[in-house]
Specification:
Blueprint lengths: L4 H11 L3 H10 L4 H19 L6 E8 L5 E9 L2 H4 L2 H17 L11 H15 L5 H19 L5 E2 L2 E5 H12 L4 E9 L7
Antiparallel strand pairs: 1-2, 2-5, 3-4
Helix pairs in contact: 1-2, 1-3, 2-3, 3-8, 5-8, 6-7
């Protein structure tokens, strides 16, 4: 099937991938744009996994103060080279991440960083909600499902991205890794709100 230049251009605008990558994905998808996007996403995930072990000694810190002056955010994102740290896609991600943290108020960057006592509290609440209503073997599956949903609401990388609710922050990060060709890591963030305690 012949793929038109217009199809390639539209896919490139949607994904930010190179013309050749877009053309190949469209050919593999038989001209179906949605399938082509999925192919590019899977490829991006594979690329990100390959680069995950590489050192990230460069990067940038960005900050954002909300217009009302009551919420402030600082975010550190690391990459492999200063060249990528100056890249417009990297800078845009950094700025968007600040806005995301301001709006979504995550607890931690990744699951492993959430306090064990907090996780146990959520697990206990979930178990109490279904206790006596289901068989024991089903209860644990329900509890784990509720916990996964809680993580998706409170963990930065798992939250729906503030500028595109159909993708998680990790999806957006994975696409950035594919675009730049470098390993990129969200290292840490701090969110301050007037009158709010600093610990959960």
């Amino acid at each position: 099937m012949a793929i038109s230049a217009e199809q390639v251009r539209q896919l490139r605008e949607r994904t930010g991938q190179s013309m050749m990558e877009c053309k190949r994905a469209l050919e593999e998808a038989g001209g179906n744009a949605e399938k082509a996007v999925e192919i590019l996403r899977k490829k991006g995930l594979a690329t990100a996994e390959k680069k995950a072990g590489r050192a990230t000694a460069q990067g940038r810190i960005a900050s954002y103060i909300h217009h009302n002056g009551r919420v402030g955010v600082m975010v550190e994102v690391n990459c492999e080279t200063d060249f990528v740290a100056k890249n417009e896609h990297f800078q845009a991600f950094l700025n968007d991440l600040c806005l995301h943290v301001c709006a979504a108020s995550p607890l931690a960057v990744r699951r492993e960083e959430v306090g064990a006592d907090l996780v146990e509290r959520e697990r206990r609440i979930a178990r109490e909600q279904v206790a006596g209503k289901k068989p024991d073997n089903v209860i644990e599956k329900i509890v784990e499902g509720k916990l996964a949903k809680w993580y998706a609401e409170r963990v930065l990388l798992e939250q729906p991205f503030v500028k595109d609710q159909d993708r998680s922050v990790k999806d957006v990060l994975t696409e950035l890794i594919q675009k730049t060709g470098e390993n990129i890591v969200v290292r840490r963030f701090a969110r301050f709100e007037v009158g709010e305690a600093t610990s959960d």
